[in-house]
Amino acid sequence: MPPSSGPSGTSPQPGETEPTGYAADAADAADAAPPRASRPVVAVIPAKDEADRIGATIDAVRGLAVVSRVVVVDDGSTDSTSERAADHGATVVRHEVNRGKAAAMATGADAAVDLVGRGRDHLLLFVDADLEASAAALVALVGPVESGEADMTIAVLPPQRRAGGGHGFVVRLARGGIERLTGWVPTQPLSGMRCLSRAAYVAGQPLAPGWGVEVGLTVDVLRAGLRIVEVPCDLHHRVTGSDWRGQVHRAAQYRDVARALVRRGR
Ligand SMILES: Nc1nc2c(ncn2[C@@H]2O[C@H](COP(=O)(O)OP(=O)(O)O)[C@@H](O)[C@H]2O)c(=O)[nH]1
Ligand SMILES: [Mg+2]
Asked: CB–CB of 108/73 below 8 Å?
């Protein structure tokens, strides 16, 4: 089990998402700790311009018997992501204007509360939209949280079929920052595929904005004294290249990860 320190502060920082009704509602539910076996799993897929891949990803996740509902949050896409997602049977919530990955995850988590019924405990399974059929491997994330072995599981991906454009410096920033803040050294600190108990999600409020969300969650969950387990999953996604688009993506990731770390005291 990774080491952990005391509870983190939960007051909203400038630029961070405000705690939602979910957080207030969930605090009671976490205390009550109903029987684990009955908790539904809601998959939340944040998506921006993923019309080409979202259908296959949804099909794979809906094919998992353990998943009760699939919510796609279309974060201001300019393509037909919303329509495709609805065609494939997902509940779709749309941000008319792009608000970033963390905001989309928060919207999806709020929608999950409405879907399962307010006050009913459940697990959240965050899924990137570009995994296509390989998303079926995410089933491995649910068991350890369902059983109570972990409060949050994180998928560890195998080497990808195509080499990336090298965002090793963002990974190193994230890994080193998490280690300094918590003592734990994550294998893939930026991995977005995670299954969370409600208590873990609440511990992460307010979510660190944008691409800082994964690092923020890891630090906050550990600081709340909760357990994280990394699980190898045979996942394959679109690898960010070294073209200008890839460089912009990496620069934004670096900025958001650095902010998440600074706000947590690095
Ligand atoms: N909400 C939201 N999600 C995004 C945005 N950009 C990308 N995503 C989604 O975030 C996930 C990861 O993005 P991706 O481009 O694959 O990043 P990478 O895996 O780090 O290379 C995918 O599900 C994307 O659809 C955005 O601006 N807002
Ligand atoms: Mg990806």
From this structure: yes
Does residue 78 form part of some domain? yes
Residue 181's nearest CA partner among 226, 152, 223 is 223
Position 11 pLDDT exceeds 60? no
Q: Which pair of structure tokens corresponds to residue 245?
A: 């688009």
The parent domain of residue 103 ranges over 21-163+185-239
* CATH code (residue 116): 3.90.550.10
Pocket of ligand 1 (CB under 6 A): 46-48, 50, 75, 98, 100-101, 104, 128-130, 192, 237-238, 240
- Which H or E run includes 27? helix 21-32
Q: DSSP letter for 243, please.
A: S
130 CA from centroid of ligand 1 (Å): 8
Stretch (H or E) spanning 70 = strand 67-75
Cα–chain-centroid distance for residue 89? Answer: 21
> What is the per-residue pLDDT across 130-178, written as a single tens digit (0 to 9) for each?
999 999 999 999 999 999 999 999 999 998 876 655 568 999 999 999 9
Residue 27 lies in a domain: yes
Q: How far apart are CA 5 and CA 222, in angstroms?
A: 7
Quick one: average pLDDT of 88-99?
A: 98
Q: How many domains does the chain fold into?
A: 1
Among 101, 191, 214, name the best residue to mutate to test ligand 1's pocket (greatest count of ligand atoms within 8 A of Cβ): 101
- Residue pLDDT, tens place only, 114-132: 999 988 999 999 999 999 9
Split at pLDDT 50, 70, 90, the class of 113 is: very high
